[in-house]
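Example with several molecule types.
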Amino acid sequence: MATQTAVDYDPFSHEAMKDAHPIYARLRASGGPVFMPKYNAWALARFADVWTASSGQEENITFTAGQTPEQVLLGGPVPHTFMTMDAPDHRKWRGLIREEYTPDGVKVNAERIRKLTREILEPLLKKGEMDVYKNLANRVTCINAGYMLGLPPQDAETWRALIDGMLEREEGQIGGGSPKNQQSFGQLFGYFMQYIADLRQHPEKAKGHTKTYMEAEIDGRKLTDEELAFYMFSLLVTGSETTPISVAGTLYYLNQNPAQKKEVVANPQLVRKAFLETLRYDQPTNMLARKARKDFDLNGASIKAGQGLLYLYASANRDEAEFPQADTFNMHREYKRDLTFGHGGHKCLGMHLGTLMGCIILEELISAIGDYSVVENQCSRLYGEHLSGFGKVVIRWNAATAKLK
Amino acid sequence: MSANRKWECVVCGLIYDEALGWPADGIAPGTKWEDVPESWTCPDCGVGKNDFVLLKS
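Resulting C-alpha cells for the full complex:
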C-alpha cells in the first residue's frame, strides 16, 4: 500500500549516491511506492512494484521523457534513440540490431572477446597486481563496444576517459552538469559528429551498428547526423560501463566469501553463477526512470499522468519478499525471476552479450591467476545517482605462477 | 501434419518451439502458436505474443 509518510529519499542526496541500500531497505519497508514531492515522482523500491510497472504497462508509461533520473526528474537533455522511444517505434529501431543480441546471436562474438581478453590480460599477469576495472574489464568492454559500432580500437582509451568524466560526480553535485561532465560529453559527442561527417564523405568506411543505423530508413525517415551520433554515443556507453563494474564486484564479493571463492578458483566455469549473483546483489544499473502518461494505480499508489517513476532495480533485487536472505551473497541461490536486466519491452538489449563478456573475462582471469587477494583500501565504489558498484578493485596474485590457460 | 515452428521474442530472444510447448505455463508440447493463449507472455521479459516473430528455418 502506497504511503506518503515520508521516507525522506532523494536520489541526488549524498546518502543515496554513496550507498543507497540502507535507504532502499527503509523504502521497501514502507510497503509500496513512495512519493517524492520535490520531484513529483514515485520511487518504486519493492520487487513486486518494479516488476508490475515494467510489463504490460506500455499504455500507462512513456519512455520518451528519458531514462536516467537526471532526465526524468531534472529535465536533463534526452538523447533520442530506441531507448527513449515507445512502441511501435521502439521495436522498429531496436529491431535493426536485435538479432545480434539474442542468446544465439552473441555466440559469434565469444572467440573474438576471449582473444581480446587474453591479449589485454597476458602482459598484466607478471605484475602481480591490477585494478580489475580499469586495467582489464573496462578495456575489454570498451574496445568491444567500439567494435560493435565499427569504430577504431585505438580510440577506446579516449572514450573510456570521457565516459568516466561524464559520469563522475562530486559530493553535493546534483545531476551531471559539472564543467567536467559537460566537457567530457561535448568531446565525446564531438568525436562522433566528426566521425559521421567523414562517413558521409566515405560511406564505404561505415561498419557494424553505425552502418546499420546510417543506412536505416523507417517509415520514410532516415537518421540525421545528430541522431546517429546519439545512437553511437548511447550504444558505446551502455555497451561498456556496467559489465566491468560487475566483473570487479564479482572478484570483491568472492573474496569476501572465501568458501565460494575457493569453489570458483577450483572450477572457473562457476564464474557465471558468481557474476549473475553479483548483478543481483550489487546491480550496476541502480535505477532507471520513466514517466506516467496516463493515470493508473500501482499497489495502492495513484500515479498521475506526467509524474516520474524511479525503477530502483538495485533495491528490487535485494527485496527479501522475493529473495530469501537477500543481503547475503550466495552464488548458488536459485530463483525464478529477477530484475537484473529489467523486465518488459525495454529489457536490456545487451544482457546476453554483457553476461558473455563478464563470464569470459572472469574465467580467463581466474584460470590464469588462481587464488587472489583484494587490496581493500584500494577499492572504491562509484559515487552517483544512476550507476552503482565498484569502479575500482585492486587485486593481487602470485605473478610467478600466473599464466594464461 | 504441419512442421513444428519456432517463434522468437524480439525483445529478449527467447524461443518458443512448438514441438516443446512451454509446460511450465501449462502449454503442452506440440501446441501451435495460434493455440497459445493470447494472454501468454514471454517467460523471460514479459512481453506479449505480438512481440514474437516466426523464425525462418
